[in-house]
Write a structure and sequence with these properties.
about 140 residues; eight-stranded antiparallel sheet; alpha+beta
């Protein structure tokens, strides 16, 4: 999961912001030049699940990827909010991550965490915001 393939490009910690913007510029939601967080306009399929994808940078370096199940049946909005849908989305994330990565290194408050030398993958539910997502956070050392 260190690499996510999108449109023949591997999204990983070697990807820099400038190349990302050159390649994906017309596939992103509107943003200003100072933005470090980018959201894809359309759903992307990864390993048989459709996701909304957000990618964050710090300067020119990618720091995280957030994946959220794009199943229309699990979509919430202000007019029809449902904790049931959020929980179902979280369960779908957990199942997908476990299929790809096996059992997590840690489970805390229902959130799954996988530790790798290159970063951390987690499936989480934030009850304050009602957000369920899969997070890929990259680690960097002074050498990379």
């Amino acid at each position: 999961m260190e690499d996510i393939g999108l449109n023949d490009i591997q999204i990983n910690r070697q990807l820099n912001r400038n190349f990302f913007l050159q390649y994906f510029n017309n596939k992103l939601m509107p943003y200003n030049q100072d933005t470090e967080i980018f959201t894809f306009k359309i759903v992307k399929s990864i390993e048989n699940m459709n996701f909304w994808i957000v990618i964050g940078f710090s300067g020119n370096r990618i720091t995280y990827i957030e994946l959220e199940n794009a199943d229309e049946n699990l979509t919430n909005d202000y007019t029809n909010w449902s904790n049931y849908k959020v929980q179902k989305k979280k369960e779908s994330h957990d199942k997908w991550v476990k299929k790809l990565l096996g059992e997590p290194d840690e489970t805390s408050n229902g959130n799954l965490r996988y530790d790798f030398n290159w970063g951390i993958v987690s499936s989480y539910l934030d009850p304050r915001s009602g957000t369920a997502a899969i997070s890929i956070r990259y680690k960097y050392s002074e050498n990379n």
